[in-house]
Every structure is written in C-alpha cells, then in structure tokens.
# Entry
Amino acid sequence: MPERNFEGFAGISIAADAYGQEEDPCVLLIPSAGQSRRTWHEAAEALAAAGRYVVSIDLRGHGDSERPADGRYDLDAYVGDLCSILAKLSSRPVIVGASLGGWIATAALGEGGPDIASGLVLVDSPPRIDPDKAREVGQMLRSYAERRGDSIDFDPHTFEGMDLEDIEERLAKAASALKLPTLIVRGAQSELSSLESIKELTVAIADAEAVEIEGAGHLVATEQAEAFNAVLLEFLERRIPREPPEYQAGSDSRTLRDALGCFATGVTVVTTAAPDGTPVGLTANSFTSVSLEPEILLVCLAKTASCLSAFDAAEHFAVNVLHIGQQPLSNRFAMKGEDRFAETDWESWSTGAPIIKGTLASFECEKYQMQDVGDHVILLGKVSRVRFEPRRDPLLYFRGKYRRLHFA
Ligand SMILES: Cc1cc2nc3c(=O)[nH]c(=O)nc-3n(C[C@H](O)[C@H](O)[C@H](O)COP(=O)(O)O)c2cc1C
# Structure
C-alpha cells in the first residue's frame, strides 16, 4: 500500500494511504478527531475493488501527520489542509468524512464553491451536536481506539480549537450552500447525533439523502463496516458512477480543465524585461507555433498573472522551452513568493528579453500582437532568434502532472 504525503495548510505534512489506480475516479476519506486513517481500511479496500482510487488521510496532529507547531486545530486550519489536498488530486473526489471529517468537508465545499468535489458522504456529522455529548464522545473515541488495538497517537490539544456554537452556525450556513450529491449516514444508536439534527441537515442540503444503519453508534463506519460499505458503494454507483467525465458548456470549469489536460504539452518559461529592466517571467504550457512565413508563435497569459503589465509594456519577450531536468525551474516560475531570477542562470541577446541558459530551446521574439480573449491574453511574437539543444528530452505536462518521454 503506497504511502502519500500532502502539504497541508501553512506547509504541515499530512500523511495518507492510497488504494487502487490513480486514473480511476477518486474518493477521499477523512476520519474523525481521535481516529486514524486505518479506521477506513476496509472501506478503502472495498472502494478500490469497485474501481475507485482511494486516498485516506490522517488529520493534522493525528497518526503520521504533523503536529502543527503553532497549535492550530481550528476549523479554518483543517479546511486549509483539505483544500491543499484537493488541489493535488488528479480528479475531483467524492469526499467521505466522519464526524469532524464531515464538518471539515461541509465547510470546505459549502464555502469554497461546488467545483472542488463531485460528491459528499457525511458520516454521523450534523452541524448541531450537544457539547456535553461531544466531550463524552471524545473520551469514547479514545477508549474505542485503544480497545481495537489501533490506538493512535494524537495531540491532546486537537479538541481545544473549536467553539461548538460558532461552528454550528457556520456549518449550517455552509450546508445550505451545498449542491452536490450528498449521502448522510447515521448510526441508529449514535451517541452524538440526534435523528432531528440529521433530518435538519437532509433538508438543508439541496441534493441530500439520508440512511440510518442499525446496530451502530457514532462510529458507524467501523461498527457496521459491511453495512456501511454496502450503502456507500450503492450511493456511488447510483449517483457518481464510473463513467467518463463529461463537460457541457456552462458546467463547472474544473471538468473543462481536466478535459483540456488530456492534451499533452511541453513546458516553457515566458520572459520579458519590465520597463525598469527587471527580468520577469512565468511558467506556461500554452505555447503554440502559429506561422512559418512570417515566423509567428503564441503563448496565452492569464490576466491575473502579476507580470502581465510588463508583457503589455514590452516590445520583446522570449519563450524558453524546458528540458526534463528543469522541473525545479518550472516550479520556481509557477510559484508565488519565489525570487525567480535570483537562482536562474540567464543572459540577454540583442533585445534585452531574458534568455534562460541551458534550455531545450529559447525563442527570442518581437511582440507581434496582443489579443484580449476572455480571462487570458494571447501574446503573439515574431521570432528573431532561436537557440536549441537537439539531444535532450523535453519536460512534459499531461493531466496536471509533469511527465517524461518514454518509447516502448
Ligand atoms: C505546467 C504549467 C503550465 C502553466 N501554463 C500557464 C499558461 O500557459 N499561462 C498562464 O498564464 N499561466 C500558466 N501557468 C500558471 C503560472 O505559471 C502561474 O500562475 C504563475 O505563478 C503566474 O505568475 P505570477 O505569479 O507572476 O502571477 C502554468 C503553470 C504550470 C505549472
């Protein structure tokens, strides 16, 4: 079982197990406070056998995930962790969250927009809970884990960052913003949730259905693992089936991006000199050759790019095509807060546009045209000079990941 590590909120390390094939539709499993990712082991295996790619995480401060030095265990920090993980997954997952895990998912999806997940399963996780019961359940989780022998290390401070009243209000609001297919599961003998709180939640979420599982309490996913797995699989097959994803005009932009990501590209760094001579640049894979006579190429730049004004003002720019060893360079020019040129070996030729040394190819261009299209501008250049390296392999980009050439 391969282990994955994610960078969470403020850079803390989040441990995860992965099951199944990464190309398959993803299910992300989030345990409750006081539990470990191993809680989900049986569910994860059942899901992988049914053709899902499963990522099962430890919450911050739990198991193999890092204990944050700043002691942050508030809902915002947990939500920040989840959003960082979602950004790294190759497809929009169905999120299954138990108890606190469900709260985190509700807040992230209700407040962050519908595009970041394809479905939601909330396991005994209503916004409204009785604070006294919550304390009891905290104790219970701990002794349950100890009894099962999969007791995990967790930071005892994890329960300190939550103001339950604030959370109830926040989660109720987030739940009413949810539009994605949602399954609400309750252990019929739950120590924490009431039937009324589950009914309220089912009414609040536009596309929700609820199921009660007999013979189980708050820890329904482990206490009645087989019944829980059956309910989960049935819901997934019916509501989020394993079909090739489809995009239709006007639906979510993440699916469109995933579709566009099926087109494999190389990776370039596009550079220019700002009016005061400072070199600027960004990573771009939207590079295309346009015409040989005259010799024209293009790149598309997001209007949000901080260096757009420099390209707007410049008369020249360069497109530097990266080789397989230049992934760190690509990252540097795609990340905020990096001094991009300080650690980059570069020179300029006749136009002053920064040319990165040691690339696969560098195209020096005179600006030909700049065309405003939607949320991007198309920057067209007339090539004045090119240097290229015929022997190295390119750095490739496909389905949101760097790749290398391989010939069978
Ligand atoms: C592989 C890859 C390809 C990218 N392609 C483009 C692109 O074609 N156009 C673009 O505007 N941003 C693209 N980006 C994103 C920018 O590099 C990134 O947003 C960068 O931080 C923008 O520069 P800024 O921080 O100065 O705003 C790409 C990022 C990566 C990792």
